[in-house]
Every structure is written in structure tokens, then in C-alpha cells.
UniProtKB/TrEMBL annotation:
Domain Helicase ATP-binding: 453-618
Organism: Sporosarcina luteola
Protein encoded by which gene: ywqA
Ranges where the Helicase C-terminal domain occurs: 745-910
Protein name: Putative ATP-dependent helicase YwqA
Cited PANTHER family: SNF2/RAD54 HELICASE FAMILY
Domain of life: Bacteria
UniProt GO molecular function: ATP binding; helicase activity; hydrolase activity
Coiled coil: none
Entries under Gene3D superfamilies matching the protein: P-loop containing nucleotide triphosphate hydrolases (3.40.50.300), Tandem AAA-ATPase domain (3.40.50.10810)
Pfam families: DUF3670, Helicase_C, SNF2-rel_dom
Alphabetic keyword roster: ATP-binding, Helicase, Hydrolase, Nucleotide-binding
Length: 914
């Protein structure tokens, strides 16, 4: 085998042609593996600079989409030196051969000589030029595409064919002339002069117009041209002859002279109506009088009012929209028949009285298509609300710069009120809070729950983006109770979350919905493939919990189930749409998709596309389409119009409430405390078990004072281990990303603090250990570029006072404090989040620290997060504190109570539950 053979890649193509003549192409390699469409595109478009070598190609998850013209173009230039293509099946091979055969004819200089028109079809003498019937059909499709891309009507082709045979398709001939040839139409000079003038002008590189002097109008073109252009005389003559051959308004062959001919009003009218659209479609330059050029499309107005009619369904979102269309030209109303006639005649310039108006015929054609769709009853209130109707019909917010739009859209008052109600999520049908819910929902949480159920009923995905602390979890759990109380629900719901909050979900479902059967799909011993299917069939769980990493690894296992619902917690984890994780999760199947996120997504455009591609697939089209429609205009041009359009499109799918909403403030406590449960990593768990066994052995040999001292030392060591194994092992710090992998708690604290900062809020992080504070500080600096001060007992008073003042002034978002040094005496009301990285055994000490933010002068809701590692001494002591607090707060005002535990209590405390 030669080196070239080894490098050669064979792509086996599956070619699917649709009725419109377009193609969907997928490929496998020589080993039978599916080739990603983006990779296939780069090989197909290897030599196509116009398509940016495949970057502009249209792809979906499985295939590349090509028009016939595109496909032919791929086989006309140089193909990739290390790639070859064959058909996957015999039919595919035949189609590929026909495409290659057609491509060869398509690019021959005498191509149009072989084309004939027969009963509306373009046909070729297949035997004469040596092509198959399939190749002939492909060429027909390619020509039709070429015509449709212009403003020419297909029925004009018979008249144009002789000119195409002589000159080819205009614009395809490459020229090196430093000038271009144009026709110029000049209106009569005076009221008594009725003749117009059509002449050829030469336009220089600087845009100056040149015509021959009057005395040289009849001279040979080479003699009339200035000396600097004489060498281009033949090319200029050829271009003029080509343009003149397309004139329908007059019949003239200027020969070897520059065209200069008078025209009457009827001839000008025909020139504007018939010739001009063809010239513009073919890219020929036509210079019109200034007054005619200044006429814009704004002279034509279309107005429509939407209302509802009940002939198709009862009421609500399924009710069919009815449209009332009105048209005007230059302020004068015209009827629908006149409008339709304009469309049918494909006219671009229209004369009304003594005035000319320029109208884009493609725009008129589009409006007529919309009218036909609307009159056929294709759109409902639901389509209008969720922007699933053409964008021309979508009402956008008022725009001062577009106060006189081409197409003005309005809604019947009752319809507007209904759409506003659903869009604003107020007054939705009451789903009834499930009796099995062990919580009392606040009014705004009931609204969120009703909205999730409503979105499910109408099969629309939902993004619940409430601020951190407003209870997204309990709203989702209420929804799950509703779904799994229905007799028709026979599949589990799937929740995918970061590893750091897996314990939180277990605890919260157990607390608020103990009736739900939960299975955690996580860890090395988890069920896979058939075993997973058997587990679901036998145990019939209501909810399956898993992590992003596990879902990515087990995408085939999970992909075999159609879940009752799929929820992504912290959905911003799939923001990078090209990662394996994002692609795998977006392929999962569910009856309803929900995204939960506490961070605003409206301004993170690539993240927004990925989330919406999950919750309501296809809503924004491909990412390339979304980039062209929104990302480029918004990020490059800062387009306010596109921002408004985007907000209007995402609004129905997005429910976001913030703690600053005045309506919510009345329903919230001033302070919310909650535990954030985190599992140990495998490394931590092994160290934890080993240390406990060793400590238990030592305790059995000690009594009295020594035993108490060992217990307190042991507790401190275990708390350090729960924070991070490097603190326990007294290791130096490694790079931040490596340190995060070894502790879920550290990962969670860092990500939560970064989210709080990104949301424009401030937080305090308390820890008992200098090493933990330094570790958090390092990670926030390296990974999120946030410089975080750390106030410890060694900091001088002057520096401490300066930092407190700067934090209160909002100069930095995150402040790390040693529990002892920063737990009392400071006023830090700038913060509305307090994170306790490790638990103090005396709640009074924690409360004093929390009160640095939650004190007089605090006007914001304060959210307190207490980090607890699942199954460890932290969780067990947290439960003990709750029980003892219920009996007497006096009993736990110090940590000494821990040394007085009985042997049974101590044994329970030292047990470890994985």
C-alpha cells in the first residue's frame, strides 16, 4: 500500500432527493462509522471558497442539506486530494454517477445550446450529449433553482433562451476590465420634449459616467473610446451586445457603435415593467433618473388585523386565527383583486397617475403566500403566541424607526388580552396543588407550578429561570407529583443535574414528595443497557436522578427510554452545543422537556440556543441559522430590533422571577436558610472510612479527658476532609481545575459564588479553615478571573476596615472570611448571599456570622447556604442540631455537648453511609 492509499478516505454517501429537487446527504466511512455532518461538509466543500469551505453549509444532526446547484458545484472543481466518494447502495451509486455526469455538462461553455423547452420542462438530447435520463432531470432542477433565485419568472425562459445560448448565463464570464458597462435612462429635458434617452455608459472605477461626444455617436466604438480604454473595446462591445439582446421594449442591434436611442413613454413604461426586472435579476447595471431611484417600497402598504373564529375548535390556544387584509398604494386604498393582479404580473415599477412606484415583486409574492396560508386556516392562537408563524406576521414591540411599516399587524382586543394573559403567565388554569406535596407553596410558586403543567398540556418546552432561592426545586417537584398521579403516565421522569447537587435532589424529593419512588442512576455499579430496562420495568420508579457526566456516558442506555419528562437542572451546563455532553443530552427522548437555571440566559446567545434546542427542538432552527438571524446582528451590530424580536420569541417559553420583583418581595421571608448537600468523591470516601476505623480503635483504648480531646480533634480532621482531601493530607495546592475534581463541595461553592457574581449580586463565604479560604480564593481567581479578598485573624484593622468599606460600596462581589475573625462586629449588608463552607457545631456562631449580612440596614432578601456532605459526620450532626434545637437552644451553645455523647450515639456518629 502506498502512502497516498493510506491517506485516502472513502466516504460512502446515502443520497436522498426530495420532491423539490434538494438533497439530504449522509455518509459512513470505510469502517461503517457515521461521519458527522460538519466533517463531511468540510470534505465536500473542500474547493468551494464561496461557501467558506463548508462553514456556511446547512446541516442537521445526521446529514448535510444541499440544493441541486450546490451538489453540481461540488463536482466541478478540484476534489479533496485524500478523499473519494461512492454510493452506499446501488441506487446511491447511480445517483452519484448521474450528478457527476450532469456536473460535467453543467459547466460546458455551450451548455445552453443543448437545452430545449418542452411542455414546461427543460429537456436535453440525452443521446447526443451522452447523459442519462436522471442526469437530465438533475439539470432541469438546477436550471429551475437558478431561475427561482432571481426575480425572473419561469415562463419568461422561452424568450430568454436564444440570448442564453449566445451569451450564457449573465455574470458567469470573468472580466478584468477596470470599467463596467451600464445602460442609462434619462428623462426628457423640458416639458415640450417628450422623448427619453436610453444610452450605454462606461462607469470608471471611481464611479464616473462616460459617454461619447455627440460628434462621435456614430463612430466605431474603438475610435470613440478614450485612449486609456481602447484596449477594452471588444469586451465593452460584447457586453453591450449581450445587454441589448435582452431588451423587450425596443428591438435594436447597436453593432459596433455605442447605444444612444430615443424612447417614447410607452417604450419607457415597457422598459421599466419588462426589461428592468430581468436586468436587475441578471446583475446588469441600469442607471435610472434620480426621481425614479428615490421611489421606495414604502409606497405600498399592507395592513392586517387578526381575530379568532371557532369553526375548527372550541376556544383557547387551539382557536384558528382569521385575518382581515387591507392594501394601499401612495395612500390610496386598493382592493384584494388589484393586489393579486400586481403579484400575478410580477411588476416591479408601477405608474399611478403621473407618479412611478417601485415595488419588490418577491416581497409581493411573499405577502400573497402569507395571505393564502392565513385564509386556509393554518395558524392558531398557539402559533401566534409561541411565534410559530412567519416573522412577517409576528407583532414586535413599537419601534420609533419603523413607524410606517410595509406590513402592519394588529390584533383584535379580546385576542390581544388573551395572548397577553398567557404570555405573562397570570391567570392560567389552576392545576391544583398535589395533596401529596409536603410543603406550602407561596403564590408565585403556585403560578410557576401551574405554568409548568400548562406548558406540558400544550406540549411546549419550558425554561424556569427563577433567581436562586425562589424555590425552582419545589415547583418542579410539585409538577412531578401532578404528572405521576395521572393514570396515563407509565414512564419515569428523568432529572439530570451536576454531581454537586445530586444529594440535594435526593434530600429535597424525600422531604417534599416522599410518595415518589426515586432511583439514582449514578456510580460504578449502576445498571446499564438491558439491566437498566429491567430495573425500570420491575421497580417502576417515578423519578430517575442522574448527573451530566453519567448521562453523557450512558446516552445509549438512557436513549432507549421515552421519559415522561426530562429536566435539566443548572441547564447552562449544555451551553457549549458542540460538546459531546451537550449533543448526547439533546438527543434524549421525553414527552416534555424542562430546563432549570438560576442565571439569566437572555444575553448569552449561544447558551440560549442550546437550551432552547433541548426544551423545544427546532424552534430556532440550526445554530447557523440562529447565528445569522440573531447572534451576528445583536453581538456585532447591537441591533435593538433583533433584540426585541428575540425577547418576543423566548418570552412564552421562559419564566424568570427575581428577588427584586416587588410582587414577590411581599411573599418572601427576609432570610431563607437551606442546606446544600454534596457527596464525597471516591478519594474522600476511602480516606474517610480509613480514618474512622483508625479513630474507633484509639477511642476504645482511652477514657475521660483524653477521650474528649480525641473526639474534638477527630471532628476537626473529618471536617477538613469533607472540605477537601488536600487539607486533610496537608498537601500543597495544585492547579484549580485539578483541585475542583477532588471535592464536590469545593466545586459547588466556587460555581455558586461565580453565578452570584455573574448575576450582579454579592456574597460572603465563611470557613473555619485558612486553607479552605485560600483554596476557594485560588479557584475563583484562576477559573473565573474574580479577585477575592480573604479576611483572616492576621489582617491589620486598617486593612480590614478598608475592605469592609469597599465591599459595601460594591467594589468586589465576593468576600471570604474566617469564621472567627469575620463572624462578629462587621456590617456587610451589601451581601444578600451567605455561604457556610463548613459547619460549626455551635449554631450561635453560625448565626452571628450570618448576621453580618442579615442585620439592620439590609433591604434585600438574604439567602443562606449551608454546605453539608451527604452520609458524613456533617449530615449527622446537622440532624442532631435540629433535634436538640427543638428541645432547648441552651443545650447546644457550645461544642462541648459533642464530647458527652453516649457510646451508641458516638458509634452512630462515626458510621459512614455511602
Amino acid at each position: 500500500m502506498t502512502k497516498t492509499d493510506a491517506l485516502n478516505l472513502l466516504f460512502q454517501l446515502a443520497i436522498d432527493r426530495n420532491e423539490a429537487g434538494g438533497y439530504k446527504v449522509s455518509a459512513t466511512d470505510a469502517s461503517g462509522r457515521t461521519v458527522p455532518p460538519d466533517r463531511l461538509s468540510s470534505f465536500l466543500y473542500f474547493n468551494n471558497e464561496q461557501a467558506l469551505y463548508g462553514l456556511l453549509s446547512v446541516t442537521d444532526e445526521n446529514a448535510v442539506h444541499l440544493k441541486t446547484n450546490d451538489f453540481l458545484q461540488l463536482f466541478t472543481g478540484k476534489t479533496h486530494p485524500f478523499a473519494s466518494f461512492s454510493g452506499r447502495t446501488s441506487d446511491d451509486e447511480a445517483h452519484l454517477a448521474a450528478l457527476q455526469e450532469a456536473a460535467k455538462v453543467w459547466n460546458e461553455p455551450d451548455f445552453w445550446q443543448h437545452a430545449e423547452l418542452d411542455a414546461g420542462m427543460i429537456r436535453f438530447d440525452e443521446e447526443k450529449i451522452g447523459i442519462s435520463a436522471l442526469s437530465s432531470m438533475i439539470l432541469h432542477d438546477a436550471i429551475r433553482e437558478k431561475i427561482e433565485a432571481s426575480a425572473i419568472r419561469f415562463e419568461q425562459l422561452p424568450a430568454l433562451l436564444p440570448h442564453l445560448r449566445k451569451f450564457g448565463w449573465p455574470g458567469e464570464t470573468v472580466t478584468n476590465m477596470p470599467v463596467r458597462v451600464a445602460f442609462r435612462l434619462t428623462e426628457p429635458d423640458a416639458e415640450t420634449d417628450t422623448e427619453w434617452l436610453l444610452e450605454t455608459v462606461v462607469v470608471s472605477e471611481r464611479g464616473a459616467h462616460w459617454t461619447p461626444a455627440v460628434r462621435k455617436l456614430n463612430a466605431d466604438m474603438a475610435d470613440a473610446l478614450p485612449a486609456k480604454w481602447k484596449e477594452f473595446a471588444d469586451e465593452i462591445r460584447e457586453k453591450q451586445s449581450e445587454m441589448a439582446s435582452f431588451l423587450r421594449s425596443v428591438e435594436i442591434d447597436p453593432g459596433n457603435r455605442f447605444l444612444s436611442m430615443p424612447m417614447s413613454d410607452p417604450e419607457v413604461r415597457m422598459f421599466i415593467q419588462e426589461d428592468l426586472p430581468v436586468f436587475q435579476s441578471f446583475g446588469y447595471s441600469v442607471i435610472l433618473p434620480a426621481w425614479l431611484k428615490s421611489v421606495t417600497e414604502s409606497k405600498m402598504r399592507v395592513r392586517t388585523n387578526a381575530s379568532v373564529q371557532s369553526y375548527r375548535s372550541a376556544a383557547g390556544l387551539d382557536e384558528v386565527l382569521s385575518f382581515d387584509w387591507n392594501f394601499s398604494l401612495a395612500g390610496k386604498d386598493i382592493d384584494q383583486d388589484s393586489f393579486r393582479k400586481l403579484v400575478d404580473e410580477n411588476r416591479e415599477y408601477i405608474r399611478s397617475g403621473d407618479e412611478w412606484f417601485h415595488i419588490d415583486p418577491l416581497w409581493l409574492k411573499r405577502i400573497r403566500e402569507l395571505m393564502e396560508q392565513a385564509d386556509a386556516g393554518e395558524w392558531t392562537v398557539k402559533d401566534l403566541l409561541f411565534q410559530e408563524i412567519p416573522e412577517e406576521i409576528v407583532p414586535v414591540e413599537d419601534d420609533d424607526e419603523a413607524d410606517d411599516p410595509l406590513l402592519a399587524f394588529s390584533m383584535q382586543q379580546s385576542l390581544r388580552e388573551y395572548v397577553d394573559m398567557v404570555a405573562n403567565k397570570h391567570g392560567l388554569p389552576d392545576a391544583g396543588v398535589p395533596a401529596a406535596l409536603k410543603a406550602e407553596l407561596r403564590p408565585y410558586q403556585i403560578e410557576g407550578y401551574n405554568w409548568l403543567v400548562f406548558m406540558r398540556e400544550y406540549r411546549f418546552g419550558a425554561c424556569l429561570a427563577d433567581d436562586m432561592g425562589l424555590g425552582k426545586t419545589v415547583q418542579l417537584i410539585s409538577y412531578l407529583l401532578n404528572v405521576h398521579a395521572r393514570p396515563e403516565t407509565d414512564a419515569p421522569s428523568l432529572i439530570i443535574c451536576p454531581t454537586s447537587v445530586l444529594g440535594n435532589w435526593q434530600k429535597e424529593i424525600e422531604r417534599f414528595a416522599p410518595s415518589l419512588i426515586v432511583h439514582t442512576h449514578y456510580g460504578p455499579s449502576r445498571a446499564k443497557d438491558e439491566e437498566f430496562d429491567r430495573l425500570v420495568a420491575e421497580r417502576k420508579p417515578d423519578v430517575i436522578l442522574t448527573t451530566y457526566g453519567t448521562a453523557t456516558q450512558d446516552d445509549e442506555t438512557l436513549g432507549g427510554t421515552v421519559f415522561a419528562s426530562i429536566t435539566l437542572d443548572e441547564a447552562q451546563n449544555i451551553k457549549n452545543m458542540q460538546t459531546k455532553q451537550s449533543r448526547a443530552i439533546r438527543k434524549l427522548h421525553g414527552d416534555h422537556q424542562i430546563a432549570l437555571t438560576g442565571t439569566p440566559i437572555e444575553n448569552r446567545l449561544s447558551e440560549l440556543w442550546a437550551i432552547f434546542d433541548f426544551i423545544h427542538k427546532g424552534y430556532f432552527g440550526s445554530f447557523r441559522t440562529f447565528t445569522d438571524q440573531f447572534i451576528i446582528p445583536i453581538e456585532r451590530d447591537d441591533s435593538e430590533l433583533e433584540k426585541r424580536k428575540l425577547r418576543a420569541k423566548i418570552r412564552p417559553f421562559l419564566l424568570r422571577r427575581t428577588k427584586n420583583d416587588p410582587d414577590l418581595q411581599l411573599n418572601l421571608p427576609k432570610k431563607l436558610e437551606q442546606n446544600e448537600y454534596c457527596p464525597l468523591t471516591t478519594e474522600q470516601a476511602a480516606l474517610y472510612e480509613s480514618f474512622i476505623e483508625d479513630t474507633k480503635f484509639k477511642l476504645d483504648t482511652l477514657t475521660g479527658f483524653e477521650r474528649k480531646g480525641l473526639i474534638l480533634k477527630m471532628l476537626s480532621r473529618l471536617k477538613q476532609l469533607c472540605n477537601h482531601p488536600s487539607l486533610f493530607l496537608k498537601e500543597p495546592h495544585a492547579p484549580a481545575d485539578q483541585m475542583l475534581e477532588r471535592s464536590v463541595k469545593l466545586n459547588r461553592i466556587v460555581s455558586m459564588a461565580a453565578d452570584i457574581a455573574a448575576n450582579g449580586e454579592q456574597c460572603l463565604i465563611f470557613t473555619q479553615y485558612i486553607g479552605m479560604g485560600q483554596l476557594i480564593r485560588q479557584c475563583l481567581s484562576e477559573l473565573h478571573d474574580i479577585d477575592v479578598p480573604f479576611l483572616s485573624g492576621s489582617m491589620p484593622k486598617g486593612q480590614r476596615d478598608h475592605l469592609v468599606e469597599a465591599f459595601q460600596a460594591g467594589e468586589f462581589p465576593i468576600f471570604i472570611l474566617s469564621l472567627k475573625a469575620g463572624g462578629t462586629g462587621l456590617n456587610l449588608t451589601g451581601a444578600n448571599h451567605v455561604l457556610h463552607a463548613d459547619r460549626w457545631w455551635n449554631p450561635a456562631v453560625e448565626n452571628q456570622a450570618t448576621d453580618r449580612a442579615y442585620r439592620i440596614g439590609q433591604t434585600k432578601f438574604v439567602h443562606v447556604h449551608k454546605f453539608v456532605t451527604v452520609g458524613t459526620i456533617e449530615e449527622k450532626i446537622d440532624k442532631m442540631l435540629e433535634e436538640k434545637a427543638a428541645l432547648s437552644a441552651d443545650l447546644i451553645q457550645s461544642s462541648q455537648w459533642l464530647t458527652e455523647l453516649s457510646d451508641r450515639e458516638l458509634d452512630d456518629l462515626l458510621s459512614f453511609e455511602r
